[in-house]
Amino acid sequence: MGRSSAADTFGHNGSNRCLAWADPARGLVLVHLTDLLTGGHEGAHHQSAVSDAVHAACA
Questions:
Q1: Alpha-carbon distance 5 to 13, whole Å?
Q2: Residue 5 maps to a domain
Q3: What does DSSP say about strands 28-33 and 10-14: parallel, antiparallel, or unpaired?
Q4: Which domain holds residue 31?
Q5: pLDDT tens digit string along 43-58?
């Protein structure tokens, strides 16, 4: 859910192919769907980067 997410942000990833989270403190919701299948830490880094980009764009 990104390095810049608030402490009360919650969500779930789906095998590094999709990600959904809600950040109640900022009033943000993200649903990211992709056909990119990247396993392990590389996939987690991609999802974190997408989340951080959303946080930065909405700051």
A1: 15
A2: no
A3: unpaired
A4: 10-57
A5: 788 888 999 999 999 9
